[in-house]
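ok so for the tutorial part 2 we go from a plain amino acid sequence to predicted structure tokens. step 1 is just haveing the sequence, like this:
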Amino acid sequence: MLAAAETVRRPTYDDRVPRWIDMDQLVNLRDVGGTPTTDGGEIVPGRLLRSDNLQDLTPADVDALLQLGVTDVVDLRSDYEVEMEGPGPLSRTDVVHHQHSFFREWREGVGEDKTSESPEAAQAVEERPEAVPDEALPWVDLEPSVEAENRVTSVYLSYLHDRPDSVLAGLRAVADADGAALVHCAAGKDRTGTLVALALTLAGAEREAVVADYAASSERAQQILDRLLASDTYNANLRDRPLSSHLSHPETMRAFLEHVEDAYGGVEPMLARIGWTPEDTARLRAKLRG
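step 2 — the prediction. this is what the tokens look like for a chain of 290 residues:
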């Protein structure tokens, strides 16, 4: 029997959907397992987690994530955010980190080698604007490169237009993770919400279940904002914005998925235009469906 000082804290689940996981620091951590699929099944728990920033995890948080089987982290923050925040505690473990910015950032030499990209992706690189480093933040009011009636939907579509390479790489990292993949950005709701919605849709999740998973972040909006305001990286940009501007409205994700359906015939045909393959889909489905 362990002495009190040796007791290992076990992560606690909420078995409902969304499956919230309580941590000392993370406030927007949940397992998408249990999400219903169109064929009457569900996404297997313990395969794909999503969260806010991993920057200030406690030792107990690190232990809990390892107990949950996390082997891969898909970090969607910009290069600027990563540089400003520095390495997080989980980087000192054997967890594999995949950093794929969803912003087109200016860096000398970045984007010059397009030989590995599809023609559609290469054209997007030529067309998309580049953000100078201190604008590569999620709430800087850059003009989206894709127009849609819903302003936030425009931002999500712009991720695909601006960084198709990162979108594909992020999805493949989820599919190929040895254990659980954890996707995060800063708040864990916009960039993370977009990639997770794509992954769930490819795995056959019901559309309204994908929308509900996205919208669940609003339940933790104040806690998410409080965490980010404590960081020098985000404070100046966030402190004058109302809480209402940080909510994940279901109509935003619904409009995103409907736009993809109307414009491309669905998520898979859209991703195929930038290099996604049927083999990629098969691996992702096997990962999330078992």
